[in-house]
Write a structure and sequence with these properties.
The protein is α+β, with helices and mostly antiparallel strands and 125 residues long. The protein contains three helices and nine strands, in the order βββαααββββββ. A hairpin with a 5-residue loop joins β5 and β6. The longest helix is centred in the first third of the chain and has 10 residues. It starts with a strand and ends with a strand. 23% of the residues are buried.
Length: 125
């Protein structure tokens, strides 16, 4: 699965998922993680546990993850727990939402292209 970068911030794109360039500056609870992603604007959110695993599988190409546990948006069937993933060994598990983990936002990808006639960036949906 190939990753491509666009814009100067080198955001990475997988299929229809755009990954924020860096983790949040600090670890945070699950609720804080959701608020942080929303505060970025532009549709940024926590990835699902499936998306988070795709990010793990491509972590070397994406970069800047470290070897931390990262939150997903997927809630566990056990109350007050949500799924997260360890980026040092790929383990996924559920963790109590009031504990702190790292955060990497993602969003749906809007295809960018360069107009070959004018050399300007254009958005194609």
């Amino acid at each position: 699965m190939g990753w491509t970068s666009h814009k100067e911030q080198a955001m990475k794109v997988i299929t229809e998922l755009e990954v924020y360039p860096t983790n949040a500056p600090t670890e945070m609870t699950w609720d804080e993680a959701n608020e942080y992603c929303a505060s970025l604007g532009g549709g940024w959110r926590l990835p699902t546990k499936e998306e988070l695993n795709e990010m793990y599988l491509n972590k070397d190409e994406i970069g800047e993850f470290g070897e931390n546990w990262l939150w997903s948006s997927s809630q566990s069937s056990i109350g007050n727990y949500a799924w997260n993933q360890n980026f040092s060994n790929s383990n996924q598990g559920s963790n109590y939402k009031s504990l702190s983990s790292s955060v990497r936002a993602c969003r749906a990808f809007t295809h960018l292209s360069i107009d070959p006639l004018e050399g300007k960036n254009g958005i194609h949906e």
